[in-house]
Design a protein that fits this description.
Helix content is 26%, strand content 28%. It has 11 helices and 46 strands. β45 and β46 form a beta hairpin.
Amino acid sequence: MQDAALDSAAVLGGKPAFDLWLKGKDVWNNWVESNIDATVDFSYMDFSADELNLDSKVISFDGFIFPKGKTLFNGSLFYSAKLSFIDAIFYGVACFDGAHFPKGEVSFNGTVFHEDACFSLAVFDKGEVSFNNTKFLGLKVCFDGASFDEGDVSFRNTEFTNSSVTFVNANFDTGNIVFEDISNSNNISFKNANFGGGDFLFESNKVTNNLNFNHAIFGCGGVYIRDCVFNGEVDFTEVDFGKGDFELSHIDCYFGLDLSYSTFERGNIMLSFIDLKNGPLLSDNAIFGDGIFSLENLSVNGSYISFCDSTFGDGRAEFMNLKMNSSTVDFSNVHFKSSVEFSQLYSNKQCLIGLNASIFEKSLQIHDWDNCIPDLTSSKTSSHLSLNDVYFKLQRSGDWIKRSTDKNDASRIRRLKEISEINKDHQSALRFNADEMRAKRWNSFGFFRSILDMIFSITSNYGQSIFRPLAFLILLMFSTSSIIVFTSGLTWPNLGCSIELVTANTLPFIAISKDVRVHSIENLFSGSLLPEYFNLLMMSHGFFSFVFLFLIGLGVRNLFRI
Protein backbone atom coordinates (compact mmCIF):
# COMPACT_ATOMS: atom_id res chain seq x y z
CA MET A 1 0.00 0.00 0.00
CA GLN A 2 2.84 2.31 0.80
CA ASP A 3 4.44 1.68 -2.63
CA ALA A 4 1.15 2.36 -4.38
CA ALA A 5 0.76 5.62 -2.53
CA LEU A 6 4.23 6.66 -3.59
CA ASP A 7 3.50 5.80 -7.21
CA SER A 8 0.30 7.79 -7.08
CA ALA A 9 2.05 10.74 -5.47
CA ALA A 10 4.73 10.67 -8.18
CA VAL A 11 2.16 11.75 -10.81
CA LEU A 12 0.78 15.27 -10.66
CA GLY A 13 -2.15 15.84 -12.97
CA GLY A 14 -5.68 17.12 -13.35
CA LYS A 15 -6.99 19.75 -10.97
CA PRO A 16 -4.15 19.41 -8.42
CA ALA A 17 -1.62 20.22 -11.14
CA PHE A 18 -3.78 23.11 -12.31
CA ASP A 19 -4.15 24.54 -8.82
CA LEU A 20 -0.43 24.24 -8.13
CA TRP A 21 0.39 26.06 -11.37
CA LEU A 22 -1.99 28.88 -10.46
CA LYS A 23 -0.05 29.45 -7.22
CA GLY A 24 2.90 30.68 -9.25
CA LYS A 25 6.47 29.84 -10.08
CA ASP A 26 7.96 29.81 -6.57
CA VAL A 27 5.41 27.42 -5.07
CA TRP A 28 5.62 25.20 -8.15
CA ASN A 29 9.40 25.05 -8.15
CA ASN A 30 9.50 24.25 -4.42
CA TRP A 31 7.19 21.31 -5.05
CA VAL A 32 9.36 20.09 -7.93
CA GLU A 33 12.45 20.31 -5.74
CA SER A 34 10.78 17.91 -3.33
CA ASN A 35 9.42 15.66 -6.13
CA ILE A 36 12.21 15.78 -8.69
CA ASP A 37 11.30 12.39 -10.24
CA ALA A 38 7.58 13.12 -10.58
CA THR A 39 5.53 13.11 -13.76
CA VAL A 40 3.42 16.13 -14.62
CA ASP A 41 0.32 15.59 -16.76
CA PHE A 42 -1.60 18.54 -18.23
CA SER A 43 -2.93 16.49 -21.15
CA TYR A 44 -6.14 17.75 -22.78
CA MET A 45 -6.54 20.59 -20.29
CA ASP A 46 -8.02 23.92 -21.26
CA PHE A 47 -5.72 26.82 -20.43
CA SER A 48 -8.03 29.51 -21.83
CA ALA A 49 -7.32 32.82 -20.17
CA ASP A 50 -11.01 33.66 -20.06
CA GLU A 51 -11.90 30.38 -18.39
CA LEU A 52 -9.18 30.90 -15.80
CA ASN A 53 -10.27 34.49 -15.07
CA LEU A 54 -6.70 35.70 -15.45
CA ASP A 55 -6.02 39.42 -15.24
CA SER A 56 -3.84 39.31 -18.34
CA LYS A 57 -4.26 37.41 -21.56
CA VAL A 58 -0.97 35.62 -20.95
CA ILE A 59 -0.61 31.96 -20.04
CA SER A 60 2.76 32.01 -18.33
CA PHE A 61 5.11 29.23 -17.37
CA ASP A 62 8.07 31.60 -17.27
CA GLY A 63 10.84 30.25 -15.06
CA PHE A 64 8.93 27.07 -14.20
CA ILE A 65 10.97 23.96 -13.53
CA PHE A 66 9.56 20.58 -14.52
CA PRO A 67 10.77 17.33 -12.90
CA LYS A 68 12.70 14.41 -14.39
CA GLY A 69 9.57 12.43 -15.15
CA LYS A 70 7.59 13.18 -18.27
CA THR A 71 5.83 16.50 -18.63
CA LEU A 72 2.71 16.02 -20.71
CA PHE A 73 0.77 18.76 -22.49
CA ASN A 74 -0.67 16.39 -25.10
CA GLY A 75 -3.87 17.79 -26.61
CA SER A 76 -3.87 20.79 -24.30
CA LEU A 77 -5.71 23.94 -25.38
CA PHE A 78 -4.04 27.33 -24.98
CA TYR A 79 -6.62 29.94 -26.01
CA SER A 80 -5.10 33.21 -24.96
CA ALA A 81 -3.32 36.21 -26.37
CA LYS A 82 0.07 34.81 -25.47
CA LEU A 83 1.71 31.64 -24.19
CA SER A 84 5.10 31.95 -22.57
CA PHE A 85 7.61 29.34 -21.38
CA ILE A 86 10.50 31.81 -21.17
CA ASP A 87 13.45 30.38 -19.20
CA ALA A 88 11.50 27.28 -18.23
CA ILE A 89 13.45 24.09 -17.55
CA PHE A 90 12.27 20.59 -18.47
CA TYR A 91 14.43 17.94 -16.82
CA GLY A 92 12.39 15.09 -18.29
CA VAL A 93 10.75 14.40 -21.64
CA ALA A 94 8.44 17.25 -22.72
CA CYS A 95 5.41 16.23 -24.78
CA PHE A 96 3.16 18.77 -26.52
CA ASP A 97 1.77 16.32 -29.08
CA GLY A 98 -1.53 17.53 -30.51
CA ALA A 99 -1.53 20.67 -28.37
CA HIS A 100 -3.39 23.71 -29.73
CA PHE A 101 -1.44 26.92 -29.21
CA PRO A 102 -3.03 30.40 -29.12
CA LYS A 103 -3.52 32.99 -31.81
CA GLY A 104 -1.11 35.26 -30.01
CA GLU A 105 2.61 34.88 -29.49
CA VAL A 106 4.08 31.56 -28.37
CA SER A 107 7.47 31.91 -26.74
CA PHE A 108 9.89 29.21 -25.63
CA ASN A 109 12.77 31.67 -25.53
CA GLY A 110 15.54 30.57 -23.20
CA THR A 111 13.80 27.30 -22.40
CA VAL A 112 16.01 24.30 -21.59
CA PHE A 113 14.88 20.80 -22.61
CA HIS A 114 17.18 18.24 -20.96
CA GLU A 115 15.47 15.30 -22.65
CA ASP A 116 13.39 14.80 -25.79
CA ALA A 117 10.94 17.50 -26.84
CA CYS A 118 7.88 16.43 -28.85
CA PHE A 119 5.46 18.74 -30.65
CA SER A 120 3.99 16.22 -33.11
CA LEU A 121 0.65 17.26 -34.64
CA ALA A 122 0.67 20.44 -32.58
CA VAL A 123 -1.27 23.40 -33.97
CA PHE A 124 0.29 26.86 -33.75
CA ASP A 125 -2.29 29.50 -34.58
CA LYS A 126 -1.72 32.95 -36.06
CA GLY A 127 0.79 34.27 -33.58
CA GLU A 128 4.55 34.37 -33.75
CA VAL A 129 6.34 31.21 -32.56
CA SER A 130 9.82 31.63 -31.13
CA PHE A 131 12.39 29.19 -29.79
CA ASN A 132 15.18 31.74 -29.56
CA ASN A 133 18.12 30.97 -27.25
CA THR A 134 16.47 27.64 -26.48
CA LYS A 135 18.56 24.60 -25.54
CA PHE A 136 17.51 21.15 -26.70
CA LEU A 137 19.79 18.70 -24.92
CA GLY A 138 17.91 15.49 -25.70
CA LEU A 139 18.35 13.17 -28.66
CA LYS A 140 15.02 13.97 -30.30
CA VAL A 141 13.20 17.19 -31.16
CA CYS A 142 10.02 16.37 -33.04
CA PHE A 143 7.60 18.70 -34.85
CA ASP A 144 6.26 15.99 -37.19
CA GLY A 145 2.86 16.88 -38.58
CA ALA A 146 2.77 20.21 -36.74
CA SER A 147 0.87 23.13 -38.29
CA PHE A 148 2.09 26.72 -38.19
CA ASP A 149 -0.41 29.33 -39.27
CA GLU A 150 0.24 32.93 -40.28
CA GLY A 151 2.84 33.87 -37.69
CA ASP A 152 6.60 33.80 -38.09
CA VAL A 153 8.56 30.85 -36.71
CA SER A 154 12.04 31.53 -35.38
CA PHE A 155 14.89 29.44 -34.01
CA ARG A 156 17.68 31.95 -33.31
CA ASN A 157 20.79 31.09 -31.29
CA THR A 158 19.19 27.75 -30.57
CA GLU A 159 21.36 24.89 -29.36
CA PHE A 160 20.64 21.33 -30.40
CA THR A 161 23.14 19.11 -28.58
CA ASN A 162 23.38 16.18 -31.00
CA SER A 163 19.61 16.24 -31.39
CA SER A 164 17.79 14.92 -34.42
CA VAL A 165 15.29 17.62 -35.36
CA THR A 166 12.33 16.60 -37.49
CA PHE A 167 9.58 18.62 -39.15
CA VAL A 168 8.33 15.68 -41.23
CA ASN A 169 4.91 16.44 -42.81
CA ALA A 170 4.83 19.81 -41.04
CA ASN A 171 2.75 22.62 -42.56
CA PHE A 172 3.80 26.28 -42.62
CA ASP A 173 1.43 28.98 -43.84
CA THR A 174 2.32 32.57 -44.73
CA GLY A 175 4.75 33.30 -41.93
CA ASN A 176 8.52 33.42 -42.36
CA ILE A 177 10.64 30.57 -40.99
CA VAL A 178 14.03 31.48 -39.54
CA PHE A 179 16.82 29.19 -38.36
CA GLU A 180 19.78 31.37 -37.45
CA ASP A 181 22.96 30.66 -35.47
CA ILE A 182 21.81 27.21 -34.41
CA SER A 183 24.52 24.75 -33.40
CA ASN A 184 25.33 21.09 -32.84
CA SER A 185 22.25 19.67 -34.51
CA ASN A 186 22.67 16.05 -35.55
CA ASN A 187 20.07 15.79 -38.32
CA ILE A 188 17.40 18.24 -39.44
CA SER A 189 14.59 16.88 -41.56
CA PHE A 190 11.82 18.75 -43.36
CA LYS A 191 10.78 15.70 -45.37
CA ASN A 192 7.33 16.14 -46.95
CA ALA A 193 6.97 19.51 -45.25
CA ASN A 194 4.68 22.08 -46.87
CA PHE A 195 5.84 25.71 -46.86
CA GLY A 196 3.37 28.44 -47.78
CA GLY A 197 3.98 32.03 -48.77
CA GLY A 198 6.64 32.97 -46.25
CA ASP A 199 10.40 33.00 -46.74
CA PHE A 200 12.59 30.23 -45.37
CA LEU A 201 15.89 31.52 -43.94
CA PHE A 202 18.57 29.09 -42.76
CA GLU A 203 21.64 31.14 -41.89
CA SER A 204 24.93 30.81 -39.96
CA ASN A 205 24.15 27.29 -38.77
CA LYS A 206 26.20 24.17 -38.14
CA VAL A 207 24.61 20.76 -38.71
CA THR A 208 26.75 17.82 -37.66
CA ASN A 209 24.96 15.41 -39.94
CA ASN A 210 22.30 15.68 -42.68
CA LEU A 211 19.81 18.33 -43.77
CA ASN A 212 16.81 16.76 -45.50
CA PHE A 213 14.07 18.46 -47.56
CA ASN A 214 13.04 15.38 -49.53
CA HIS A 215 9.58 15.84 -51.16
CA ALA A 216 9.09 19.23 -49.50
CA ILE A 217 6.83 21.83 -51.17
CA PHE A 218 7.54 25.57 -51.13
CA GLY A 219 5.04 28.22 -52.16
CA CYS A 220 5.66 31.85 -53.08
CA GLY A 221 8.36 32.51 -50.52
CA GLY A 222 12.08 32.31 -51.14
CA VAL A 223 14.52 29.76 -49.72
CA TYR A 224 17.78 31.24 -48.44
CA ILE A 225 20.50 29.02 -46.98
CA ARG A 226 23.66 30.96 -46.18
CA ASP A 227 26.91 30.70 -44.20
CA CYS A 228 26.34 27.13 -43.04
CA VAL A 229 28.46 24.06 -42.36
CA PHE A 230 27.01 20.63 -43.06
CA ASN A 231 29.05 17.63 -41.96
CA GLY A 232 26.58 15.35 -43.72
CA GLU A 233 24.53 15.44 -46.92
CA VAL A 234 22.11 18.18 -47.97
CA ASP A 235 19.10 16.53 -49.62
CA PHE A 236 16.66 18.52 -51.80
CA THR A 237 15.52 15.57 -53.92
CA GLU A 238 12.05 15.79 -55.47
CA VAL A 239 11.38 19.20 -53.92
CA ASP A 240 8.87 21.64 -55.43
CA PHE A 241 10.42 25.08 -54.93
CA GLY A 242 7.37 26.96 -56.16
CA LYS A 243 7.58 30.55 -57.38
CA GLY A 244 10.14 31.95 -54.96
CA ASP A 245 13.89 32.46 -55.24
CA PHE A 246 16.40 29.86 -54.11
CA GLU A 247 19.79 30.83 -52.72
CA LEU A 248 22.50 28.54 -51.42
CA SER A 249 25.65 30.51 -50.62
CA HIS A 250 28.82 30.30 -48.51
CA ILE A 251 28.32 26.64 -47.71
CA ASP A 252 30.79 23.99 -46.53
CA CYS A 253 29.33 20.59 -47.30
CA TYR A 254 31.20 17.39 -46.52
CA PHE A 255 29.03 14.73 -48.13
CA GLY A 256 27.29 16.28 -51.08
CA LEU A 257 24.35 18.35 -52.21
CA ASP A 258 21.46 16.69 -54.03
CA LEU A 259 18.80 18.60 -56.03
CA SER A 260 17.78 15.68 -58.23
CA TYR A 261 14.20 15.57 -59.55
CA SER A 262 13.44 18.98 -58.05
CA THR A 263 11.24 21.59 -59.75
CA PHE A 264 11.70 25.35 -59.87
CA GLU A 265 9.12 27.70 -61.39
CA ARG A 266 9.84 31.42 -61.86
CA GLY A 267 12.27 32.24 -59.08
CA ASN A 268 15.97 32.95 -59.54
CA ILE A 269 18.41 30.27 -58.44
CA MET A 270 21.81 31.18 -57.05
CA LEU A 271 24.36 28.63 -55.88
CA SER A 272 27.57 30.39 -54.88
CA PHE A 273 30.69 29.96 -52.73
CA ILE A 274 30.01 26.30 -52.08
CA ASP A 275 32.84 24.02 -50.99
CA LEU A 276 32.06 20.33 -51.51
CA LYS A 277 34.65 18.53 -49.41
CA ASN A 278 33.96 14.91 -50.35
CA GLY A 279 30.51 14.46 -51.85
CA PRO A 280 29.03 15.42 -55.23
CA LEU A 281 26.64 18.08 -56.46
CA LEU A 282 23.72 16.22 -58.01
CA SER A 283 20.87 17.80 -59.93
CA ASP A 284 19.77 15.02 -62.28
CA ASN A 285 16.33 15.24 -63.90
CA ALA A 286 15.68 18.63 -62.32
CA ILE A 287 13.44 21.23 -63.96
CA PHE A 288 14.69 24.80 -63.69
CA GLY A 289 12.06 27.37 -64.57
CA ASP A 290 12.18 30.82 -66.13
CA GLY A 291 14.34 32.51 -63.51
CA ILE A 292 18.07 33.14 -63.82
CA PHE A 293 20.24 30.19 -62.82
CA SER A 294 23.69 30.96 -61.42
CA LEU A 295 26.32 28.50 -60.20
CA GLU A 296 29.52 30.30 -59.28
CA ASN A 297 32.57 30.05 -57.02
CA LEU A 298 32.11 26.33 -56.50
CA SER A 299 34.93 24.07 -55.30
CA VAL A 300 34.70 20.30 -55.76
CA ASN A 301 37.42 18.05 -54.37
CA GLY A 302 37.72 14.79 -56.26
CA SER A 303 33.99 14.16 -56.57
CA TYR A 304 31.63 15.12 -59.41
CA ILE A 305 28.87 17.43 -60.58
CA SER A 306 25.88 16.03 -62.43
CA PHE A 307 22.92 17.76 -64.13
CA CYS A 308 22.01 14.80 -66.36
CA ASP A 309 18.62 14.91 -68.10
CA SER A 310 17.71 18.28 -66.58
CA THR A 311 15.83 21.11 -68.27
CA PHE A 312 16.61 24.83 -68.02
CA GLY A 313 13.78 27.22 -68.89
CA ASP A 314 13.69 30.72 -70.38
CA GLY A 315 16.05 32.25 -67.83
CA ARG A 316 19.74 32.34 -68.72
CA ALA A 317 22.13 29.90 -67.04
CA GLU A 318 25.59 30.89 -65.80
CA PHE A 319 28.36 28.59 -64.57
CA MET A 320 31.35 30.66 -63.48
CA ASN A 321 34.56 30.27 -61.51
CA LEU A 322 34.28 26.55 -60.83
CA LYS A 323 37.27 24.71 -59.37
CA MET A 324 36.98 21.07 -60.28
CA ASN A 325 40.16 19.54 -58.76
CA SER A 326 40.17 16.32 -60.82
CA SER A 327 36.40 16.03 -60.73
CA THR A 328 33.93 15.13 -63.47
CA VAL A 329 31.11 17.40 -64.60
CA ASP A 330 28.17 15.82 -66.42
CA PHE A 331 25.59 17.87 -68.35
CA SER A 332 24.64 15.08 -70.73
CA ASN A 333 21.13 15.12 -72.23
CA VAL A 334 20.38 18.55 -70.79
CA HIS A 335 17.97 20.91 -72.57
CA PHE A 336 18.89 24.60 -72.36
CA LYS A 337 16.08 26.83 -73.66
CA SER A 338 17.96 30.08 -73.08
CA SER A 339 21.55 31.30 -73.31
CA VAL A 340 24.27 29.46 -71.37
CA GLU A 341 27.68 30.62 -70.23
CA PHE A 342 30.50 28.47 -68.89
CA SER A 343 33.44 30.62 -67.83
CA GLN A 344 36.49 30.37 -65.57
CA LEU A 345 36.52 26.62 -65.10
CA TYR A 346 39.72 25.31 -63.54
CA SER A 347 41.14 21.96 -62.58
CA ASN A 348 44.52 20.86 -61.24
CA LYS A 349 44.33 17.82 -63.54
CA GLN A 350 42.39 17.00 -66.67
CA CYS A 351 38.65 17.34 -66.01
CA LEU A 352 35.89 16.22 -68.36
CA ILE A 353 32.92 18.55 -68.80
CA GLY A 354 30.24 16.34 -70.31
CA LEU A 355 27.88 18.32 -72.55
CA ASN A 356 27.20 15.41 -74.86
CA ALA A 357 23.75 14.90 -76.35
CA SER A 358 22.60 18.25 -74.93
CA ILE A 359 20.48 20.83 -76.76
CA PHE A 360 21.32 24.54 -76.72
CA GLU A 361 18.44 26.52 -78.23
CA LYS A 362 20.26 29.85 -77.87
CA SER A 363 23.86 30.95 -77.42
CA LEU A 364 26.48 28.80 -75.72
CA GLN A 365 29.56 30.63 -74.46
CA ILE A 366 32.68 28.80 -73.32
CA HIS A 367 35.74 30.76 -72.25
CA ASP A 368 38.60 30.82 -69.73
CA TRP A 369 38.84 27.07 -69.29
CA ASP A 370 41.98 25.51 -67.85
CA ASN A 371 42.52 21.73 -67.95
CA CYS A 372 38.82 21.14 -68.66
CA ILE A 373 37.75 19.21 -71.78
CA PRO A 374 34.22 19.91 -73.04
CA ASP A 375 32.51 16.83 -74.46
CA LEU A 376 30.15 18.17 -77.14
CA THR A 377 29.66 14.90 -79.01
CA SER A 378 26.10 14.50 -80.30
CA SER A 379 25.20 17.94 -78.92
CA LYS A 380 23.12 20.47 -80.84
CA THR A 381 24.02 24.16 -80.91
CA SER A 382 22.06 26.82 -82.74
CA SER A 383 24.56 29.70 -82.80
CA HIS A 384 28.23 30.50 -83.18
CA LEU A 385 30.41 28.78 -80.57
CA SER A 386 33.94 29.99 -79.90
CA LEU A 387 36.43 27.58 -78.33
CA ASN A 388 39.57 29.69 -78.52
CA ASP A 389 39.69 30.05 -74.70
CA VAL A 390 39.53 26.32 -74.03
CA TYR A 391 42.91 24.90 -72.99
CA PHE A 392 43.78 21.60 -71.42
CA LYS A 393 46.69 19.23 -71.02
CA LEU A 394 45.79 15.77 -72.22
CA GLN A 395 46.11 13.30 -69.38
CA ARG A 396 48.46 10.49 -70.39
CA SER A 397 50.25 7.74 -68.51
CA GLY A 398 53.64 6.11 -69.03
CA ASP A 399 57.27 7.22 -68.97
CA TRP A 400 58.52 6.86 -72.55
CA ILE A 401 55.41 5.63 -74.31
CA LYS A 402 52.73 8.04 -73.09
CA ARG A 403 49.22 6.81 -73.75
CA SER A 404 45.96 8.73 -73.26
CA THR A 405 44.20 7.41 -70.16
CA ASP A 406 40.76 7.70 -71.78
CA LYS A 407 40.33 6.22 -75.26
CA ASN A 408 37.25 8.39 -75.82
CA ASP A 409 39.31 11.59 -75.61
CA ALA A 410 40.02 11.41 -79.35
CA SER A 411 36.35 11.52 -80.36
CA ARG A 412 35.61 14.33 -77.92
CA ILE A 413 38.49 16.45 -79.18
CA ARG A 414 37.56 15.67 -82.80
CA ARG A 415 34.14 17.24 -82.12
CA LEU A 416 35.86 20.39 -80.81
CA LYS A 417 37.99 20.48 -83.96
CA GLU A 418 34.89 20.11 -86.10
CA ILE A 419 33.16 23.04 -84.37
CA SER A 420 36.29 25.20 -84.75
CA GLU A 421 36.51 24.40 -88.46
CA ILE A 422 32.84 25.29 -88.96
CA ASN A 423 33.50 28.63 -87.27
CA LYS A 424 36.67 29.21 -89.37
CA ASP A 425 38.76 29.26 -86.20
CA HIS A 426 41.83 27.67 -87.75
CA GLN A 427 44.20 28.15 -84.83
CA SER A 428 41.85 26.38 -82.42
CA ALA A 429 41.23 23.66 -85.01
CA LEU A 430 45.00 23.08 -85.30
CA ARG A 431 45.37 22.92 -81.54
CA PHE A 432 42.54 20.42 -81.17
CA ASN A 433 43.88 18.39 -84.10
CA ALA A 434 47.21 18.10 -82.28
CA ASP A 435 45.49 16.89 -79.11
CA GLU A 436 43.40 14.43 -81.12
CA MET A 437 46.56 12.93 -82.62
CA ARG A 438 48.15 12.64 -79.18
CA ALA A 439 45.01 10.90 -77.90
CA LYS A 440 45.19 8.40 -80.77
CA ARG A 441 48.90 7.70 -80.36
CA TRP A 442 49.53 4.20 -78.96
CA ASN A 443 45.75 3.68 -78.76
CA SER A 444 44.21 3.58 -82.23
CA PHE A 445 47.57 4.10 -84.01
CA GLY A 446 49.94 1.20 -84.55
CA PHE A 447 53.60 1.18 -83.53
CA PHE A 448 55.13 2.60 -86.74
CA ARG A 449 52.48 5.29 -87.16
CA SER A 450 52.77 6.23 -83.48
CA ILE A 451 56.54 6.70 -83.94
CA LEU A 452 55.96 8.96 -86.98
CA ASP A 453 53.28 10.86 -85.05
CA MET A 454 55.65 11.38 -82.15
CA ILE A 455 58.36 12.72 -84.51
CA PHE A 456 55.83 15.04 -86.15
CA SER A 457 54.86 16.33 -82.70
CA ILE A 458 58.46 16.91 -81.59
CA THR A 459 59.70 18.57 -84.77
CA SER A 460 56.78 20.89 -85.53
CA ASN A 461 54.01 20.53 -82.93
CA TYR A 462 51.79 19.17 -85.70
CA GLY A 463 52.48 22.04 -88.09
CA GLN A 464 51.76 24.76 -85.52
CA SER A 465 55.38 25.78 -84.95
CA ILE A 466 57.79 27.54 -87.32
CA PHE A 467 60.57 27.85 -84.76
CA ARG A 468 60.96 24.10 -84.09
CA PRO A 469 61.69 22.94 -87.69
CA LEU A 470 63.82 26.05 -88.27
CA ALA A 471 65.90 25.23 -85.19
CA PHE A 472 66.25 21.60 -86.29
CA LEU A 473 67.31 22.74 -89.81
CA ILE A 474 69.99 25.09 -88.45
CA LEU A 475 71.24 22.36 -86.14
CA LEU A 476 71.35 19.93 -89.08
CA MET A 477 73.33 22.37 -91.23
CA PHE A 478 75.89 23.11 -88.50
CA SER A 479 76.26 19.42 -87.62
CA THR A 480 76.80 18.41 -91.25
CA SER A 481 79.38 21.19 -91.74
CA SER A 482 81.23 20.09 -88.61
CA ILE A 483 81.31 16.46 -89.76
CA ILE A 484 82.81 17.47 -93.10
CA VAL A 485 85.52 19.57 -91.44
CA PHE A 486 86.55 17.22 -88.65
CA THR A 487 86.43 13.91 -90.52
CA SER A 488 88.33 15.26 -93.52
CA GLY A 489 91.24 16.66 -91.52
CA LEU A 490 90.44 20.17 -92.66
CA THR A 491 91.16 23.28 -90.67
CA TRP A 492 88.79 25.79 -89.09
CA PRO A 493 89.19 28.35 -91.89
CA ASN A 494 87.51 25.80 -94.14
CA LEU A 495 84.40 25.75 -91.91
CA GLY A 496 83.03 28.71 -93.87
CA CYS A 497 83.33 26.83 -97.15
CA SER A 498 81.66 23.78 -95.63
CA ILE A 499 78.75 25.95 -94.44
CA GLU A 500 78.41 27.36 -97.96
CA LEU A 501 78.35 23.81 -99.32
CA VAL A 502 75.70 22.67 -96.83
CA THR A 503 73.58 25.78 -97.43
CA ALA A 504 73.66 25.19 -101.18
CA ASN A 505 72.69 21.56 -100.58
CA THR A 506 69.84 22.71 -98.35
CA LEU A 507 68.45 25.11 -100.95
CA PRO A 508 69.01 23.30 -104.29
CA PHE A 509 66.03 25.05 -105.90
CA ILE A 510 67.89 28.39 -105.90
CA ALA A 511 69.67 28.92 -109.25
CA ILE A 512 73.08 29.81 -107.86
CA SER A 513 73.15 26.84 -105.49
CA LYS A 514 74.71 24.47 -108.07
CA ASP A 515 77.67 26.80 -108.78
CA VAL A 516 78.18 27.44 -105.05
CA ARG A 517 78.23 23.71 -104.38
CA VAL A 518 80.88 23.00 -107.08
CA HIS A 519 83.04 25.95 -105.98
CA SER A 520 82.86 24.94 -102.29
CA ILE A 521 83.88 21.33 -103.03
CA GLU A 522 86.89 22.52 -105.04
CA ASN A 523 88.00 24.84 -102.22
CA LEU A 524 87.56 22.17 -99.58
CA PHE A 525 89.17 19.20 -101.29
CA SER A 526 91.48 20.96 -103.85
CA GLY A 527 90.71 18.48 -106.61
CA SER A 528 91.46 15.39 -104.50
CA LEU A 529 89.11 12.46 -104.24
CA LEU A 530 86.03 12.98 -102.15
CA PRO A 531 85.72 10.97 -98.93
CA GLU A 532 83.77 7.73 -99.24
CA TYR A 533 81.02 8.93 -96.94
CA PHE A 534 80.58 12.29 -98.63
CA ASN A 535 77.85 11.47 -101.16
CA LEU A 536 75.80 9.56 -98.57
CA LEU A 537 76.18 12.42 -96.12
CA MET A 538 75.02 14.98 -98.67
CA MET A 539 72.04 12.91 -99.75
CA SER A 540 70.95 12.35 -96.13
CA HIS A 541 71.39 16.02 -95.40
CA GLY A 542 69.38 16.96 -98.47
CA PHE A 543 66.55 14.62 -97.50
CA PHE A 544 66.19 15.90 -93.94
CA SER A 545 66.61 19.48 -95.13
CA PHE A 546 63.68 18.95 -97.46
CA VAL A 547 61.60 17.58 -94.55
CA PHE A 548 62.37 20.54 -92.29
CA LEU A 549 61.77 23.04 -95.11
CA PHE A 550 58.40 21.42 -95.70
CA LEU A 551 57.53 21.70 -91.98
CA ILE A 552 58.58 25.36 -91.99
CA GLY A 553 56.34 25.97 -94.98
CA LEU A 554 53.50 24.11 -93.28
CA GLY A 555 53.89 26.27 -90.18
CA VAL A 556 53.88 29.47 -92.26
CA ARG A 557 50.82 28.30 -94.17
CA ASN A 558 48.95 27.49 -90.95
CA LEU A 559 49.95 30.78 -89.38
CA PHE A 560 48.58 32.91 -92.22
CA ARG A 561 45.68 30.70 -93.24
CA ILE A 562 42.54 32.69 -94.05
